[in-house]
Design brief:
One of its GO terms (biological process) is unsaturated fatty acid biosynthetic process. The chain contains 18 helices and seven strands. By secondary structure, it is mainly α.
Length: about 450
C-alpha cells in the first residue's frame, strides 16, 4: 500500500477470464509469498512488494485476502501519488457481480463513512495549523532548558533534582506525543518532511527509533486489539487480556504467572518497566539487527547531548540513575495514557470488520478538557485518531460530533469516559480477565 512498485505478471483467475476475480479467489491468497489485496475494487498482487513497503511488510500482510480500501485511505495522505506506485502491482479487478465490500461488511455504513471523511476534508479538518506544533515543540525545549538552568543555578540537591526529573519526564512524554504526530504524517503536506522531522524528534529528543516505532504502531492502527496482528496486545505471557485469551490459556493450563493476580502485579511490571526495560531493549536490538544506522546515529545524539549536559553536575553514575528515574516516570505516564483507551475494550482474533466498527470496538474516548488534551497528547480523542490517523490532532474535536452521529445512526457504540474512570477500567479489566482465566484453569 504505497511508495514504490515491482513489476508483476498479469494473472488469469480460475474463472478463466484474465484479470477479473471473485472474493473467494482473492481470499485464497493470504500466506507469506502469496498475498493479494483489494483497493477500490482493484486487485493487487503485493507478494513481493511487502518487503519494500515503507510502513513495514506486516501491515499489508494483515490485509491479505481482504478489502484494504479503508486502511489505504486512512494511512496515505497523498492518495494520487501512491496510486501511481501501485500500478505495477495491479493484476485485475473484482468481477462486476461481486460486492465492493468483502464478507459481511455493511456496504451502507462503509459508504457513509467514506462520505464523512470527504466532508471533514472539505471542512479543512485535515489541514495543519503550523503554530500549534511550533508552540508544542517550543514548550518541550523550554522544559529541557529550565531543567538544565535549575541544576546550573541551584545545584544537585535532592529537592532540586526531583524537580528537574519531573520537568525532564514531562518533556519526554510531550516529545512522545509530538513524534507521534510526525510519525502519522499529520503535520506537513509532504510525507518526506514528516519522516525527516520524525527522526529528529524521536531520535534526538527521545533517544528512540523512528523505524521501530513505525513497524509497531502502524500494525496497531491497522488491526487494533486483534491477536497476532496488533503487537500492543502481545503481552509476552505476562498478562492475559480480553475475554477470549484467558479462556484459551486456562483450558491449556498455561500458568506462566498467577494471572488471577495480574491486576496487582501490573503495578510492578507494567507501567514501571515498559519503557526503561522492554522498549529500551527492543529499540536497540531492532536498530542493530536490521541495520538502521541512521536511526542509531540520531539515537546516539540524544545520549551524547544528555550526558554532556548532566555528567558535569552529577558525574556518570548519578547521571545514569537520573536518566533511568526519568524513564521510570515517563513509562508510567505512557502506559496509563495509551492503555486507558484499549485494554478495557474488546480484544479478540480477526473478525474482518469494516474500518469504523473495528476501530470503535477497540477504542474509547476520554472527556475533553484543556488538561486532558495536553496530558494525553489529544489521545483522549482516541476514536477520531484511529479513524483518521493522518488528521492533525488539534482538529479531533471538530470531527468528534460527526463521528458520534454516524455511530448513532448505525448502532455502533461510541464510548467516552472520565480520565479517572478510564484509569480504573484498566485495573478492573485485568482483574476480570484474571478471573476468567482462573475459572477456565480450574474448571475446564
Amino acid at each position: 500500500m504505497g511508495g514504490g512498485g515491482q513489476q508483476t505478471d498479469r494473472i488469469t483467475g480460475t474463472n478463466g477470464r484474465s484479470g477479473t476475480y471473485t472474493w473467494e479467489e482473492v481470499q485464497k491468497h493470504t500466506k507469506s509469498g502469496d498475498q493479494w489485496i483489494v483497493v477500490e475494487r482493484k486487485v493487487y498482487n503485493v507478494s513481493q512488494w511487502v518487503k519494500r513497503h515503507p510502513g513495514g511488510m506486516r501491515i499489508i500482510g494483515h490485509y491479505a485476502g481482504e478489502d484494504a480500501s479503508e486502511a489505504f485511505t486512512a494511512f496515505h495522505p497523498d492518495l494520487q501519488l501512491v496510486r501511481k506506485y501501485m500500478k505495477p502491482l495491479l493484476i485485475g479487478e473484482l468481477e462486476a457481480s461481486e460486492p465492493s465490500q468483502d464478507r459481511q461488511k455493511n456496504g451502507a455504513l462503509v459508504e457513509d463513512f467514506r462520505a464523512l471523511r470527504e466532508r471533514l476534508e472539505a471542512e479543512g479538518c485535515f489541514k495543519t495549523q503550523p503554530l500549534f506544533f511550533i508552540l508544542h515543540l517550543a514548550h518541550i525545549l523550554l522544559l529541557e532548558a529550565i531543567s538544565l538552568m535549575l541544576v546550573w543555578y541551584f545545584g544537585t540537591g535532592w529537592i532540586n533534582t526531583v524537580i528537574v526529573a519531573v520537568l525532564l519526564a514531562t518533556a519526554q512524554s510531550q516529545a512522545g506525543w509530538l513524534q507521534h504526530d510526525f510519525g502519522h504524517l499529520s503535520v506537513f503536506k509532504a510525507s518526506r518532511w514528516n519522516h525527516l522531522v520524525h527522526k529528529f524528534v524521536i531520535g534526538h529528543l527521545k533517544g528512540a527509533s523512528a523505524e521501530w516505532w513505525n513497524h509497531r504502531h502502524f500494525q496497531h492502527h491497522a488491526k487494533p486489539n486483534v491477536f497476532k496482528k496488533d503487537p500492543d496486545v502481545n503481552m509476552l505471557n505476562m498478562f492475559v487480556v480480553g475475554k477470549v485469551q484467558p479462556v484459551e490459556y486456562g483450558v491449556k493450563k498455561i500458568k506462566n504467572l498467577p494471572y488471577n493476580h495480574q491486576h496487582k502485579y501490573f503495578f510492578f511490571i507494567g507501567p514501571p518497566l515498559l519503557i526503561p526495560v522492554f522498549f529500551q531493549f527492543q529499540i536497540f536490538h531492532n536498530m542493530i539487527s536490521h541495520g538502521l544506522w541512521v536511526d542509531l546515529l540520531w539515537c546516539i545524539s540524544y545520549y551524547v547531548r544528555y550526558f554532556l549536559c548532566y555528567t558535569q553536575f552529577y558525574g556518570v553514575f548519578w547521571s545514569v540513575i537520573l536518566f533511568n528515574f526519568i524513564r521510570f516516570m515517563e513509562s508510567h505516564w505512557f502506559v496509563w495514557v495509551t492503555q486507558m483507551s484499549h485494554i478495557p475494550m474488546n480484544i479478540d482474533y480477526e473478525k474482518h470488520q469494516d474500518w469504523l466498527s473495528m476501530q470503535l470496538v477497540a477504542t474509547c474516548n476520554i472527556e475533553q478538557s484543556s488538561f486532558n488534551d495536553w496530558f494525553s497528547g489529544h489521545l483522549n480523542f482516541q476514536i477520531e485518531h484511529h479513524l483518521f490517523p493522518t488528521m492533525p490532532r488539534h482538529n479531533y474535536w471538530r470531527a468528534a460530533p460527526h463521528v458520534r452521529a454516524l455511530c448513532d445512526k448505525y448502532g455502533v457504540k461510541y464510548q467516552e469516559k472520565s480520565l479517572y474512570g478510564a484509569f480504573a477500567d484498566i485495573v478492573r479489566s485485568l482483574e476480570k480477565s484474571g478471573e476468567i482465566w482462573l475459572d477456565a484453569y480450574l474448571n475446564k
